[in-house]
UniProtKB/TrEMBL annotation:
Organism of derivation: Yinghuangia soli
Ranges where the RNA polymerase sigma-70 region domain occurs: 2-67
RNA polymerase sigma factor 70 region 4 type domain span: 106-154
PANTHER family assigned: BLL6612 PROTEIN, BLL6612 PROTEIN-RELATED
Organism domain of life: Bacteria
Single Gene Ontology MF annotation: DNA binding
Name the UniProt record assigns to this protein: RNA polymerase sigma factor
Keywords: Sigma factor, Transcription, Transcription regulation
Family as reported in the entry's similarity comment: Belongs to the sigma-70 factor family. ECF subfamily.
Length: 402
């Protein structure tokens, strides 16, 4: 409950005080007060309102003690609010726009991408700085510097805490969605470490996507992103065996897929693709839905998946999209056709350090009987793989060639 309420609380305080550091300190002090008070007095009937009122008072106390803050902020106006501590409509049980403002502030295009992700996890997901640092396998001090740098940029560039106007939303929303999806991707497929997945991180990203969807229900790409994440996360339990080994799509026990999550994802996919031209997340959700609907790899509708990748290529061309399309073509037309497309991508710098590219080449070369070439590609993929389950899988495939 604290993690859920913290995002609302922080957003409301930022809107009122216009200072992210002050809001974080006051929110933390309010939670600390609750941890001391609630076990003795009981949880209030409106915990969100209690936290907000307490945090406002904590902020005012700080303003009184800190002359620098007092000179910069309208303390008298804040103190006037103490006479009427009721929270804004919707703060307790509803969904005010405050969090949406914070979404757009944390994902502002003026911030570097790594800073945007760090700030989103810190402010909206409620992770501590050490937790964010662990998520991306960097020292806590490094992550703290990123967060401080992002806050400083917000202050110096005078980035407003507000939801963009209707004319700005189409340009700004993709950046917000990109940050949430980047968090999910790191959780679904960790870039390095002993585990294949960071389920805690993936689930935090899903929680953020659900908040966004409740705040912007009419935005089809928000529906598409949530659908894509649900349809992908539904396979989480089947992606590793009981001993932690990686299981590829053709090896997964599909009875372990989360059918409730898949059904929800399918419904959101329909919403994302209805009412206008499709967006990138809606198309990717449709691809994920086709995988989830199939009984197995052999019965998957590969022609339709290739057609969807053609649409995605027109919307957001990239080497990774081209790689995924080549893999789908290999399933539709055979390994030779897929390998020809992969070879056309050999000069792409983005793919040189991307181990799935070499792993895909190795698989197709192996299926074509070119064992020496396949072994060389597996060795290249092995040198690039970031997690131990991926390296163990590639070693097994390499050993199988001999």
């Amino acid at each position: 409950m604290f993690r859920e309420e913290r995002g609302r609380l922080l957003a409301s305080l930022v809107r009122r005080f216009g200072d992210l550091d002050l809001a974080e300190e006051a929110a933390s002090e309010a939670v600390e007060a609750a941890l001391r008070t609630w076990p003795a007095d009981g949880v209030p009937s409106r915990p969100g309102a209690w936290l907000l009122t307490t945090a406002r008072r904590k902020a005012v106390d700080r303003l009184r003690r800190d002359q620098a803050y007092a000179a910069r902020l309208a303390v008298l106006q804040v103190e006037a609010d103490r006479a009427d501590p009721a929270p804004p409509a919707g703060t307790d049980g509803g969904l005010p726009d405050d969090r949406l403002q914070l979404f757009f502030t944390c994902a502002h295009p003026a911030l570097a991408e790594e800073d945007r992700i760090a700030l989103t996890l810190r402010c909206l997901a409620g992770l501590t700085t050490p937790e964010v640092a662990r998520a991306f396998l960097v020292p806590t001090a490094t992550m703290a510097q990123r967060i401080v740098r992002a806050k400083k940029k917000i202050r110096e560039a005078r980035i407003p805490f507000r939801v963009p106007g209707a004319d700005e939303l189409p340009d700004r929303l993709p950046g917000v969605l990109q940050v949430v999806y980047a968090v999910f991707t790191e959780g679904y497929a960790a870039s390095s470490g002993p585990e294949l997945q960071r389920l805690d991180l993936a689930e935090e990203a899903l929680r953020l996507a659900r908040i966004l969807h409740r705040l912007l229900p009419a935005e089809r790409e928000v529906s598409g992103l949530l659908a894509l994440m649900l349809l992908t996360h539904a396979r989480r339990d089947a992606r590793t065996t009981e001993d932690g080994a990686l299981a590829m799509l053709d090896e997964q026990d599909r009875t372990r897929w989360d059918r409730t999550m898949i059904t929800e994802g399918q419904q959101l996919t329909v919403a994302a693709l209805t009412g206008g031209p499709p967006g990138p997340y809606g198309v990717q959700a449709a691809i994920a839905a086709l995988h989830d609907e199939a009984d197995g790899v052999a019965s998957t509708d590969w022609p339709q998946i290739v057609a969807l990748y053609d649409v995605l290529t027109a919307l957001t061309p990239s080497p990774v999209v081209a790689l995924n399309r080549a893999a789908a073509v290999a399933m539709r037309d055979g390994p030779g056709a897929g390998l020809a497309l992969l070879d056309e991508l050999a000069g792409e710098p983005q793919l040189r350090a991307y181990h799935p590219y070499q792993a895909a080449r190795a698989d197709l070369l192996s299926r074509l009987g070119r064992r020496d070439d396949a072994a060389a590609a597996y060795r290249e993929a092995l040198a690039l793989a970031g997690t131990e389950p991926e390296r163990a899988y590639l070693r097994r495939r390499l050993d199988a060639l001999h």
